[in-house]
Amino acid sequence: MTLSHDVAGDGPTIVLLHSTVCDRRMWDPQLPALTGAGYRVVRCDLRGFGDSPMPDRPYNNADDVAGLLDELGAEQAALIGASGGGRIALEFAARFPQRTTALALLCTAVADHEPGERLRAFGDQEDALLEAGDVAGATELNVTAWVGPHADDATRDLVRRMQRHAFEVQLAPQEQEYGSIKHDVDLSAITAPALLVSGEHDFADFHAIAVRLSEELAGSRHLHLDWAGHLPSMERPDELNPVLLGFLRETVPA
């Protein structure tokens, strides 16, 4: 299955991997900035998000990204990943280092992280709401948890619509449910330069992950934003876009 996607611009390829509270629409504020700077931008919806249906066979997200790049004729790409999209970007960069030119990871997750008390409590509350059939309540919980205080109402509404749609797709009855294929991932295999962004108003877990990765990944640096929640690319794109462009101009000049 090919992931639903769109492509804009010309130049070095940049792949945008969305947070799992969102879909590829979260990158609307970045698209004109990146294409205007001379990059070919690929946005995709992961399986079960946006316009991509649930999987019809066992799957792996990083393999899906590799397959999409193959289809588009892109041998290499820089990856910008938010939260769960960052976790996928890390796996891709570790398994396909020769194909990865740079990594920009925004409030990234990582596969082996043990969640802290607040994050576990959030997960328990979300599970309880969904088990009770309260999709609207679970949606609002996610908006409250993941959107930072400096986001405007339009941003909150978009996150609300993206998350509600994801729940509807993922909770719909399936003929058969297929799990994700797990691969052994050695992050020390990553060779691409990496920018790790965390936010002051996010769960502490994501700051800790950024600090840890900045120590483990050669050629990486950590930027902590005092204004940001979990979705800085949506909350203040006018401040985040220059950060991304500056990093890309250094690592993948157009």
Task: Summarize this structure as a short list of keywords or feature phrases.
Rossmann fold; alpha/beta; globular; 43% helix; 254 residues
Report on this structure.
The chain is α/β, with parallel strands linked by helices. The chain has a single domain, classed as 3-Layer(aba) Sandwich (Rossmann fold). It has nine helices and seven strands. It has helices at 31-36, 61-72, 84-95, 117-131, 135-146, 153-171, 204-216, 232-235, 237-251, and strands at residues 5-8, 13-17, 40-44, 77-82, 100-106, 194-199, 220-225. The protein has a seven-stranded mixed sheet, with helices on both faces. Helix 2 packs across helix 3 (84-95) and helix 4 (117-131) runs antiparallel to helix 5. The longest helix is centred in the middle third of the chain and has 19 residues, at 153-171. The chain is globular. The two termini are 31 Å apart. The mean pLDDT is 96.
How would the blueprint of this fold be written?
Layout (H helix, E strand, L loop, with lengths): L4 E4 L4 E5 L13 H6 L3 E5 L16 H12 L4 E6 L1 H12 L4 E7 L10 H15 L3 H12 L6 H19 L22 E6 L4 H13 L3 E6 L6 H4 L1 H15 L3
Parallel strand pairs: 2-3, 2-4, 4-5, 5-6, 6-7
Antiparallel strand pairs: 1-3
Helix pairs in contact: 2-3, 4-5, 5-6
